[in-house]
Design a protein that fits this description.
Layout (H helix, E strand, L loop, with lengths): L1 H12 L2 H5 L5 E2 L6 E5 L2 E8 L5 E6 L4 E6 L2 E2 L9 E2 L3 E10 L2 E8 L3 E10 L5 E9 L2 H8 L31 E6 L9 E2 L2 E2 H18 L3 E4 L9 H10 L4 E6 L11 E6 L6 H16 L10 H31 L4 E9 L11 E5 L6 H7 L2 H30 L1
Helix pairs in contact: 4-9, 7-9
Length: 405
C-alpha cells in the first residue's frame, strides 16, 4: 500500500505539464467506469475526459478507499450507478474543497492497494485504475494508524482562534448568528427526484441570511456554495465568529410516513426516538464517507469540561428551541407532531454557543417537498425564524444583565 501511495504522490508532484493542460474541468464518464469485484479483491476503473493529478490512500474505522482528484466533475450520475461490487458497502463522490474532488468507497473489510496507475490516451483522456487485494486486519490497522497522509489533512478542522471567552450578549451589540446549511459537496444529503438537500437548504439559508442582516443581525455562513465542510469545522467557524447562536438547517429524509413538518432538534446523548437517532448517525456517517478522519476526536478530559460548560448553555438552547417552535406555529407553519426532539448531533456540540438544528422539512415527505420549493412558504418560515431569534435574544439579554449585577 505504501508503495502505491508513494507512486500516486510522486505522480502528483511530477505532473506539471499534465496539470498545466487542464484548461477545462475534467469529467467522469460513468458508462466507461466501474467499481467491481475482481478475484478476491476490488477493481476501480475511472474513465476521465482529461488526465488529472490524483492520490489514493486507505483509512480505517470503517475501512475506506479515498481517491482525491484535481479536479473531476462527477456529473449528475449517482455513485451507486458505478458500484457493481459486493465488497463495497457505500460509494460517495463530489467536490470536497476548492480545486479538489473526492471519491470514497467504504469497504467490507481490510484491503491494501496492490496497484494504482493512470493511463493517458492519445487525446489526453485519462483512466485511473486501482486494484485492491485483501489484507490482514492487523497489518491494515498498522498501515492506517497514522490517518490520512499529510497532503490530505486539509479535510480536518482547524481550531478556532479565540482571544478571550465570549461573554453572553446583552442586546447592546448586533446578535451574531451562524447559519449552517447542512451537507454540501461530496455529501449531497437527502435526495428526492431532482431535489438534493444540500442545494435546497443552501438556497433557503441564503434567503434567511439576507433577511436577518436586513433586521440588523450579523450573519456568518458555514458554507456559501456547494462545498463539503466537516462537522467539526462548522463548529470551529461558529467559535471563530464569536457567535451568539448557531443554527444548523436541514431537510433530511426518513422512512415514508415517519416525518413531515418542521422539527427542532437539541443536543442529547439519548435520542428522543429511533428516527432521531438514525438522523444523528446519518449526519456523522456523512463525514466518514467524505473521508474525514474521526479517530482522534474523543478526549475524556475535554468532554467533561464541555459538559460542565453546557450546564449554562443548554437551558439557553432549550429556550431558543421553544421560541422557534412557537414562532413557526404562530406564522401558520406546519410542525412535526413532536416539534422539539433530541439526538446526539455532533454539529450541536459547541459547549459555549446555544446551538439547535432545524429540519425545515423532510424531502421524504411529498407535502414538505412542495413547501420547500414554494417561495411564499419559505419567506413565511424565514420570518418565523427571525421572530424567534428576536424574542429569544431579548429574554436572553435580560437574563445576562441580571447575572452580571
Amino acid at each position: 500500500m505504501l508503495r502505491a501511495l508513494l507512486l500516486c504522490l510522486a505522480m502528483l508532484a511530477a505532473a506539471p505539464l499534465r496539470a498545466a493542460d487542464l484548461t477545462a474541468l475534467a469529467h467522469l464518464d460513468p458508462a466507461a467506469s466501474r467499481v467491481a469485484d475482481e478475484g478476491a479483491g476490488v477493481a476501480v476503473d475511472l474513465a476521465i475526459s482529461k488526465a488529472v493529478p490524483y492520490r489514493a490512500f486507505l483509512m480505517n474505522d470503517p475501512p475506506r478507499l479515498v481517491l482525491d482528484f484535481s479536479e473531476v466533475a462527477f456529473g449528475v450520475s449517482r455513485p451507486a450507478a458505478l458500484d457493481r461490487s459486493e465488497r463495497v458497502r457505500a460509494l460517495a463522490w463530489g467536490p470536497v474543497r476548492a480545486g479538489w474532488s473526492r471519491l470514497v468507497a467504504e469497504l467490507d473489510g481490510p484491503y491494501r492497494i496492490d496497484s494504482a496507475e493512470e493511463r493517458v490516451g492519445a487525446g489526453g483522456e485519462g483512466e485511473v485504475r486501482i486494484r485492491l487485494v485483501p489484507e490482514d486486519a492487523s497489518a491494515f490497522a498498522a498501515a492506517t494508524a497514522a490517518g490520512p497522509p499529510e497532503v490530505a489533512r486539509w479535510a480536518l478542522p482547524k481550531p478556532a482562534v479565540v482571544d478571550t471567552p465570549k461573554r453572553r450578549q446583552t442586546g447592546e451589540a448586533p446578535l451574531v448568528v451562524v447559519i449552517d446549511p447542512g451537507h454540501g459537496g461530496i455529501d449531497p444529503g437527502a435526495e428526492a427526484g431532482a431535489l438534493q438537500e444540500a442545494d435546497v437548504i443552501l438556497g433557503f439559508a441564503r434567503e434567511l441570511a439576507e433577511l436577518l442582516r436586513r433586521s440588523g443581525m450579523t450573519v456568518v455562513m458555514t458554507r456559501e456554495e456547494d462545498v463539503f465542510v466537516p462537522l467539526e469545522t462548522r463548529i470551529s467557524v461558529a467559535r471563530a465568529a464569536r457567535a451568539d447562536v448557531f443554527l444548523s438547517l436541514h431537510a433530511d429524509a426518513l422512512a415514508e410516513g415517519e416525518a413531515t413538518g418542521a422539527t427542532v432538534f437539541l443536543l442529547a446523548e439519548e435520542a428522543s426516538d429511533g428516527a432521531s437517532a438514525r438522523l444523528a448517525e446519518w449526519h456523522d456517517r456523512a463525514d466518514l464517507l467524505a473521508g474525514v478522519d474521526l479517530s482522534a476526536q474523543d478526549d475524556l478530559v475535554a468532554q467533561v469540561m464541555m459538559d460542565m460548560a453546557r450546564t449554562e448553555t443548554q437551558p439557553r438552547a432549550d429556550r431558543l428551541a421553544a421560541a422557534l417552535a412557537a414562532a413557526i406555529r404562530e406564522k401558520g407553519g406546519r410542525m412535526h407532531r413532536h416539534p422539539i426532539q433530541q439526538a446526539a448531533f455532533s454539529v450541536l456540540k459547541s459547549p459555549d454557543i446555544p446551538s439547535i438544528l432545524l429540519e425545515v422539512g423532510f424531502l421524504s415527505s411529498e407535502a414538505d417537498r412542495k413547501r420547500l420549493v414554494d417561495p411564499v412558504w419559505r419567506a413565511t418560515m424565514q420570518e418565523a425564524i427571525l421572530a424567534a431569534l428576536k424574542t429569544w435574544a431579548e429574554a436572553d439579554a435580560a437574563e445576562a444583565k441580571l447575572l452580571r449585577q
